[in-house]
């Protein structure tokens, strides 16, 4: 892991892992809100089946809006989003949000299995799947607990499991662990990797945490100051099986983190400059 990462930085062009079928293709997508605010402009991204792609960018640049467009909650103003059908017939798409979405009147096992309350499935198979997922993240002894009886980190684990329980073809994660303290987050990362790798779940992770992006992703893309487009892309060269604690001690981890920060900080500076220009323009208009 101590190899140089200079060769792993790539141009910001849509791509998928070599030899892998595309799971999702975002092609020249733009999106403007009804008030005319342009959140995304000419964004293209291809994600291979089973790939985990981290998305980072300045605050307010359009990261969450991108997920909403991919999920079909917003229709693109231009361009197309194509979610390729999975030959195995897996459930199409699930999203895990930053805000707590657990239902407080349901026990842990019922929150994880919530999808199946509205979709027919064999009751015993569902119970077995839920038990397997709870074991994978060490929550089997809390299966009958209510959300209020859990720590913040445990609640985020349950919310994540509720997203993966339907075995989605595509999982969208919108800063799902940002509210958790750092030690708990590191533990969660190891468990999340284990689940995503075992299920071979295609995942797009929006995060403001560069360490999280490097830890969990196969590839990290940097979005520009709004309106969002892909301005840089980095392959994460650490393989499928990772020990999170050991990984973070590796020089290559720190080197990649530094390269991501270099690209991200340039976009943060650009966002500040645009904000300052907008403020100066508004002030000049008021003076007139």
Descriptive notes:
With 288 residues, the protein is α/β, with parallel strands linked by helices. The chain folds into 2 domains: 6-90 and 168-287, Rossmann fold (3-Layer(aba) Sandwich), CATH 3.40.50; 101-166, no CATH class. The protein has helices spanning 63-70, 108-112, 123-136, 152-164, 182-199, 210-216, 244-247, 251-287, and strands spanning 9-10, 22-32, 38-48, 52-56, 78-83, 91-96, 168-174, 202-206, 219-223, 230-235. The N and C termini lie far apart (60 Å).
CATH top level assignment of the largest domain? Alpha Beta
Distance between the termini: 60 Å
- Write down the Rg: 20 Å
- CATH topology term of the largest domain: Rossmann fold
Percent in strands: 15-25%
What's the total count of β strands? Answer: 10
Task: Give me the CATH architecture of the largest domain, please.
Answer: 3-Layer(aba) Sandwich
* Sheet with most strands: strand arrangement: 1-10-9-4-8-7-6
Shape: globular
Average per-residue pLDDT, rounded, comes to 86
Q: What's the SSE pattern? A: EEEEHEEHHHEHEHEEHH
Total separate domains = 2
How would you concisely characterize the structure shown here?
The chain is of the alpha/beta class. It has helices spanning 63-70, 108-112, 123-136, 152-164, 182-199, 210-216, 244-247, 251-287, and strands at 9-10, 22-32, 38-48, 52-56, 78-83, 91-96, 168-174, 202-206, 219-223, 230-235. It is built from eight helices and ten strands.
């Amino acid at each position: 892991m101590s190899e140089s990462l200079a060769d792993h930085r790539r141009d910001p062009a849509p791509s998928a892992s070599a030899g892998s079928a595309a799971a999702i293709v975002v092609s020249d997508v733009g999106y403007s809100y009804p008030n005319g605010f342009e959140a995304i402009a000419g964004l293209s991204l291809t994600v291979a089946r089973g790939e985990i792609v981290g998305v980072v960018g300045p605050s307010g640049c359009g990261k969450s809006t991108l997920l909403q467009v991919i999920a079909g909650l917003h229709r693109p103003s231009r361009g197309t989003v194509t979610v390729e059908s999975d030959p195995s017939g897996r459930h199409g798409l699930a999203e895990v949000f930053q805000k707590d979405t657990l239902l407080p009147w349901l026990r842990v096992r019922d929150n994880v299995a919530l999808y199946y309350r509205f979709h027919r499935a064999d009751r015993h198979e569902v119970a077995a799947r839920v038990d397997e997922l709870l074991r994978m993240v060490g929550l089997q002894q809390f299966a009958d607990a209510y959300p209020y009886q859990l720590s913040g980190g445990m609640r985020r684990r349950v919310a994540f499991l509720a997203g993966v329980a339907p075995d989605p073809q595509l999982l969208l994660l919108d800063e799902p662990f940002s509210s958790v303290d750092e030690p708990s987050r590191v533990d969660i990362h190891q468990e999340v990797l284990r689940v995503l790798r075992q299920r071979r779940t295609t995942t797009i992770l929006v995060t403001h945490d560069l360490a999280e992006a490097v830890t969990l992703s196969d590839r990290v893309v940097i979005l520009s100051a709004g309106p969002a487009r892909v301005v840089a892309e980095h392959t994460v060269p650490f393989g499928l099986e990772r020990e999170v604690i050991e990984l973070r001690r590796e020089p290559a981890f720190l080197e990649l983190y530094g390269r991501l920060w270099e690209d991200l900080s340039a976009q943060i500076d650009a966002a500040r400059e645009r904000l300052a220009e907008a403020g100066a323009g508004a002030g000049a208009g008021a003076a007139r």
